[in-house]
Amino acid sequence: MHCPFCKHDDSRVVDSRSSEDGTSIRRRRQCPECGRRFTTVESAQLLVVKRSGATEPFSRDKVVGGVRKACQGRPVTEGQLAVLAQRVEDVLRAAGSAEIAAHEVGLAILVPLRELDEVAYLRFASVYRAFESLEDFEAEILMLRAERERA
């Protein structure tokens, strides 16, 4: 770790603490060259593997953007979308892998979206699962009704 003050290429960790949510580590460091202290925050990067094989960092903004289209005209707030994106990230991180297939991101979106708004869920699922006929919609609606009756 380079010192932000003198640019020395080494530093010593003086103290380490986990963040409140447990997703990052705060480290207090000291430069052996100039003696000044500074703080770094380290977090595990979650990578999404696209169909093409390319990887990119997981982005809550991309989740919100995709789901926002499905929620257009529905009574869903930006706050609810932010919570949904956080839930998706939590589920993906709980899987314990640093790389997640893009398909897994879509699957992780479906459950909280269904709980948030069933119409938005159907819209998203129809694109994500590539519905090709009315029968696909009917099957999904029957499944939603069966789940509602069980609850």
What does this structure look like?
Belongs to the NrdR family. By secondary structure, the protein is of the alpha+beta class. It folds into two domains: 12-43; 47-149, no CATH class. Helices cover 47% and strands 20% of the residues. It has helices spanning 60-70, 78-94, 102-116, 118-128, 134-150, and strands spanning 12-18, 24-30, 37-43, 47-49, 55-57, 99-101. The strands form two sheets. Strands 1-2-3 form a three-stranded antiparallel β-sheet, with no helix packed on it. Strands 5-4-6 form a three-stranded mixed β-sheet. Strand 4 (47-49) and strand 5 (55-57) form a beta hairpin. Helix 1 packs across helix 2 and helix 3 (102-116) runs antiparallel to helix 4.
Helical segment count: 5
Strand content: 15-25%
Overall pLDDT metric: 93
If strands are numbered along the chain, what order do they take across the biggest sheet? 1-2-3
Q: Give the strand tally.
A: 6
Gyration radius from CA atoms, angstroms: 21 Å
| Intertermini distance | 53 Å
Structural class: alpha+beta
Provide the low-confidence segments as ranges: none
List keywords for this structure.
alpha+beta, 3-stranded antiparallel sheet, 151 residues, 5 helices, elongated, 2 domains, 6 strands, 3-stranded mixed sheet
